[in-house]
Amino acid sequence: MKKRKFKESVFKFLMLLATVIVVGSLFLIAGTVIYRGIPYISLDMVTQVPSGGFYIGKEGGVLNAIIGSLYVAGGASVIGIIISIPVVVYLNLYIKRDTLFANAVRMCFDVLFGIPSIVYGAFGFIIMIYFGLRASLLGGIIAVTLLIIPILIRTLDEIIKTVPSELRDTSFSLGATRWEAAKVVLRQIRPGILTALLLAFGRGVGDVASVMFTAGFSDNIPTSFHEPAATLPLAIFFQLSSPIEEVRGRAYAAALILTALVLMITVAAEFFTKKLSKNKI
Amino acid sequence: METVIPTPEIKNQRTAESAQPHIRVQNLNVHIGGQHILKDINIDIPNKKVTSIIGPSGCGKTTLLKTFNRLLDNSADVNIEGKVLLDGENIYDPRAEVTQIRKKMGLLSQKPFPLPMSIYDNVAYGPRIHGIRKKKELDELVERYLNAAGLWDEVKDRLHTSAAKLSIGQQQRLCLARGLAVEPEIILGDESTSALDPVSTHRIEELFLQLKEKYTIVLVTHILRQARRVSDYIIFVYMGRVIEFGPTEEVLLHPKEELTKEYVKGFIS
Asked: I need a labelling partner for B254 at 20 to 30 A (CA). Which of A45, A46, B156, B206 fits?
């Protein structure tokens, strides 16, 4: 009896320790960013584009990178979901769920999921050169879309599996075509689609390697798809390597802005998820 | 409101039609994942009667029901041989239009599965996919079939709220209304009352008795008392074979086959 009790307390302790480490590191990271970034946060940071001497400590802000990041990650999320939903519907509703083909396709996406983002960046770069494109907003969106599609597909695939097959059969038994049945299933997973989008957006907005060569960097807010676009992760990367303390501080401020951006989108998504769950079965 | 009590003319017509089987199953064999689930099934389901399929769990009764509206088509590893004739036409004919076949049958499953939308949209779903767009027409259909399912008075003030908020018993009646709204000829019930409380069960059974005036009803049930209460005919299925098929009283009270006798005794003695 004593031994069992001892084991129980040891494992309880280990579990608690692991939880504390994880939650603790989150607070440590957030704390560092806030502590080092807050002194450099100003209205200018979020409303101004960099002026001539911004990178040596003169005035300006990172609005170019904020907008650029929203464009790149937002555009990629929209295109990504437009491509992913048909794939997932096809895998789950058009072909029988556990066939060799369906599972082979799933494995492809698992492999794509594991590919580091720099590879997507390099691949996007090659495609751009092939088509004679320069670093541009469009290039960045394409590279990030490639990066997040496996996340979207794998997440949606898991979510769509949780829909009871009876719901599908219900539509079929009313004489629905496959696409009409798919629409019912998609309606049921609307909150899940939002979660998948959020995950994908989070990954896309924070990635440096995929946008480094493809979106490039610019001090201006892009006005067309063919202009290069700045992104927050790159803005952080450039400023962090500066010898000037003011500029390094601004890197943390930019990181704080990026974190706040993701946080705001998470909260908004949570709100809309609740709204969309209204009719869920 | 349309009542489900037939006018005398319809009644005469019904007796004439009754002679013709509505669903005719010929030499039906079903294999799922290499297992022989249904073996040489040959039955005629009578028109505008309630026919119950009874048998122990896993005997293939639900599979038999699902062959009638081709719901097995979506599962992997299914092999179906033989014919199921609906009004004389083989529904497994490669040229048969599966959505049209399914439209002729309303399925009421074990647990109610309302669609993730409002009460109104649930009932209007079928008519809409089959091309009815006019609001007035849809309004009428929704009211008529919610009435037919005995749900109208309970929900008429909240038609546009979520169907998920209804009680289980109400949800099942909503599913019935939704099935009726595509104007089927046949109602298939797959243990439709097994998730319901006794009061809701009673309501559904009453509805079946009313609805058989207009529809052919095929039920799968494992409750013998229910089969006795609602059905005109009984099909006893055991290990994938039809053992006995006949009028309710005959099969339940004076079974011819030894297996039926044992099954019936095990439950009601």
From this structure: B206
